[in-house]
Amino acid sequence: MFDKEGMSKWFVYMLRCADDTLYTGITTDVARRVKEHNGEIKGKGAKCTRARRPVKLVYQETCADRSAAGKREWEIKQFSRAEKDALIK
What is the DSSP letter of 85? Predict the structure, then answer.
């Protein structure tokens, strides 16, 4: 995904796993990344989601660049479960 200047867009996303845990990550292509997490693209996806499939996208937000996405990911990972649930809603 690219913005109007031709720069790649970065996203922070949250997945709900089959065991109801939440996974937070960053990517430039949310749809592709969800497929990777669900094993639709072989050899990809995070270790922690492999045993918790299927996963479902429950939240995403656009960030200015990779640095901003990484900072926001870290921020969200510090949230309590209640704060993450509130963000999803």
Answer: H
Entry pTM: 0.89
Query: Taking the CA of residue 41 as centre, how many other CA atoms within 13 Å lie in the half-sphere pointing to its CB?
Result: 10
CA atoms within 13 A on the CB side of 52: 18
Angstrom distance (rounded) from CA 57 to CA 22: 10
Structure token pair of residue 5: 């200047």
Ordered structural domains, the chain, with CATH: 10-88 (3.40.1440.10)
- Joined together, the tokens standing for residue 49 give 């989601």
Q: State the amino acid at position 11 in one-letter form.
A: F
What is the per-residue pLDDT across 12-32, written as a single tens digit (0 to 9) for each? Answer: 999 999 999 999 999 999 999
State the greatest distance between any 2 C-alpha atoms of the chain, in Å, as a whole number: 40
Dist. CA 83–CA 38, nearest whole Å: 25
Quick check: helix, strand or coil at residue 48? helix
